[in-house]
Each structure stands twice: as structure tokens, then as C-alpha cells.
Amino acid sequence: MEGKRVRLVGYTLRQLLCFVAVAEHGSITAAAEQLRVSPSAVSGAVDELERVLRTQLTVRRRAHGVTLTTSGHDVLRRARSLLDEAEDLESRARDTGDDLRGPFMVGSYHTLAPTVLAELLAAYTERHPGVDLDFVSGSQADLVDRLAGGELDLAVVYDVALPPTIQVHRLYQAAPQVVLPADHRLAQDEDQPLPLDLLASEPFILLDLPPSRENTMTLFDHAGITPQVRFRTTDYELTRSLVGRGLGYSILVQHPSSSLTWGGRPLTTRPLEPRPHPVGVCLAWDSNVRPSRRAEAMVDLARTLHGPAHGQRP
Which family does the entry's similarity section mention (predicted)? Predict the structure, then answer.
């Protein structure tokens, strides 16, 4: 059977590397410093790439640095993917064992970073010390955008409202629970489900971060209840601290092993009635960006830490 005929392209990996560096640093000079070449070499590489692709990728203004055109943003995403593929090819050919090397960037949803991400980072660093591992935390929407743009290799997110291009390996499921001050009148019988309507008149502290916010408010909508929102926060530990001070209750998915707030105030959690659907916590990647060996190694590690994979989302 005849193999697929491949036409040699006119651009080089070096040109792609220079273009990505310019896009990420916003200037020719900064890109040249990172790559340890002259600014004229970087500028010439980007010029030649634009000539070969027959499209303008950048707008260069002396006082304002470099910005990307619409075509530039599209090429940036594809260039990052090609460079990752090239690096992965070299790594796969060179590695004779589990000696992984190279950069690896992981993202995490804000509330999952202290627990899930920290555990993964510690175990991964011990298993693969040669990898240049780094991380960022952010909103779910920001992490999805960064995955699509090739800025992140993997992200720890909730399996909620993810676009169809995102594939996941589920780590575990967690159900939202009520968080109360330990001395609250409803804090007794903590193993027993607490009917949501008993909280209707209580002051509510909302963790105002998507998708946590939408998931929580859906619980109230389905129960026909309008919560008495007293405070809105975007900080998980602040939410718990406000509850610990007796300023209201909250509904949270993540629950630390300690029942104390940072200020040492005791909290109690109770399951909800009706029982809410559990929320999946997962490792996610964009299907348009082929996972590197470093990413595959983290998924394998997650299988070890959290059991077998639940596969891709239907």
C-alpha cells in the first residue's frame, strides 16, 4: 500500500520558535533575550515565516511592542502544538527509560489547587525529577482557554460545562455539602441529610466562582428556594472563615481533612436533602493538542493515586 505523500513545508521549527517567543513576550527584544540570539535574527525569522505563510501574523509598533493579528493567534496555537510534537518526538527517541525531561505546565481551578494539585505536584516531582514542572491556578473558563491555546498541558477542573473539545480523566466525584458553624442549631446529627428548605431563612455565604456558583444556585432553583445571600466571596478559605465566625452557612464541594478554619474555628458539614448529583473532579486536556509523554505520565500517576480512569466524557 502506497504511503501518504508528504510535501516539504517552507517554514522551519526555528521560525516557529521565534514567533512563539515574540507572541509570549510581546516584543522582539524580550524574545531575543530569552532565545539568546540577536533581535535582528528573531525579526528576520518572523518576517520569513510571514512570507512563507503569505499572511501577516504580527503588528509591530516601536512604542507599543508586538501584537498578534487574527491569523497570528490561530498560527500561535498551531505553532505551540507543532513545537510540542517536535520536542516529544526527540524525547521519545532519546529516552531509554522513565527519564522524562522538559517543560510541563499544569493548571488548576482555584479551590482544587490546595488539595488535588498539591498532591499531584508532590508525587510527580518525586517520580520525574528531570521535568521542569510549573503550575497556575485560575477560573475554569481561563483554564479551558489556556488548554485550547496550548499554554497548559493539563488542568485540574470540575467536569461541569466543559466544551466538547475537552477530554478528561476523572479522579473522583464529590457531592456538595452544607458547611455550618459547629455550634449552629442545625449542626447536630452531621451524618444525617439536612433538608435544604430548613436553610431558606438562614444567611447564606456564596462562593461566587463559576462553575461552583452555577452548581450551587441550581440546587436552590430545583428546590424552589431563594437563598438569603449575605456575602459573596471568591476565596474558598474566606468562605469557610466567615462560616466559622457565625456569619452564615455555605455549600461547598471540597472539604479539607481539618474541620477547623484558618482562624481555628470549628466547622460541621452535613449532606443535603434532596441528594445533589456528585460533581466530577478531573484532569483535562484539549483534544486538538496531542498530550506529551510528560502529560501522559501525570495521567498515569493520577490513576495510581485515585484509582482507574473513568475514560472520556460521553
Answer: Belongs to the LysR transcriptional regulatory family.
